[in-house]
Amino acid sequence: MANIKEDRRQFLKFSTLGILGLTLGAGMVISPYALQAEMRLRPPGAVKENEFLALCIKCGQCLQVCPYHSIKLSDMAKGHGIGTPYIDARERGCYSCTAVPCVLACPSGALDHKTEKPEDIKMGIAVLEFPDRCLARTNTPVPKGHSKRVHDFTNNQNNVTQLEIDLLNKLDEFEGKQCTICADMCPIPNPLSAISMIGDGEGKKPEVYDGCIGCGACEELCPANEAAIVIKPRMSYDDYYIKGSNS
User: Fold this and answer.
1) What are the backbone angles phi and psi of residue 127, rounded to the nearest 5°?
2) Are residues 213 and 103 in contact, defined by beta-carbon separation less than 8 angstroms?
3) C-beta pairs of 168-172 under 8 Å, 24+ apart in sequence
4) Burial readout 34-68 (b: 16 or more C-beta within 10 A, e: otherwise)
5) Structure pTM?
């Protein structure tokens, strides 16, 4: 009987240690994914990531006032920062509204109220990361139905705004033409300070300048099956194009 009790104690001891080990091991696997939250594209005016996570009260006010349905709230599948706002640029970029309503709606300071106009926004920087996908560079006309993905996203929203309808109408006009969408659809007040199309010997391609605010409209609207131009969140022009080129 004593042997049975001892065996039971040993079984419970090692079973508990085994479960603890698996839990810790899982934590080590999960933790890198949690860090991906720091690479999310945050709404305009977002303060530094650690401060943002501390200040954001997950109220969703920024989401409610966005006229383009650009802002989403993160869930458990997105790592840490559950309930905090972010933008998935391929689904819907930010259109740098004149009054920056998302910032005005933020009650906690997670979105800095010093961000008062589009030129104050610093979300990230656009990068032509996949030039071989770029339709302009390969002289491929914008295909028929290129805007279906953007139409579908818009049509799935409640309370579609006139701003979104105007966006779709303008985007549809590029069908069959040489692609200049990323430059011509840039929503900031002075788009030529952010991006333009230049010849590169094979065709044309977008060139990004220091006026880019990283809004993500170019990534959303890129007509390639997978975006040729993408946003690097929380990076500046100097971070990527100046310091990055020297590293």
Assistant:
1) -140, 130
2) no
3) 171/147, 171/221, 172/147
4) eeebbebbbbbbbbebeebeebbeebebbbebbeb
5) 0.83
Task: Report the 10 Å Cβ neighbour count for 130.
Answer: 14
Record the tokens describing residue 73, joined without a space.
């709230």
Token code pair at residue 238: 């100097």
- Taking a C-beta distance cutoff of 8 angstroms, is the pair 45, 87 a contact? no
* C-alpha dihedral sign at 237, 212, 164, 98: positive
Per-residue pLDDT of the chain (247 residues; tens, 9 = 90+): 444 444 444 434 444 334 333 333 433 343 444 445 557 999 999 999 999 999 999 999 999 999 999 999 998 665 568 999 999 999 999 999 999 999 999 999 999 999 999 999 999 999 999 999 999 999 999 999 999 999 999 999 999 999 999 999 999 999 999 999 999 999 999 999 999 999 977 789 999 999 999 999 999 999 999 999 999 999 999 999 998 766 5
Note whether 69 and 102 are within 8 A (CB): no
Contact 208, 127 (CB under 8 A): yes
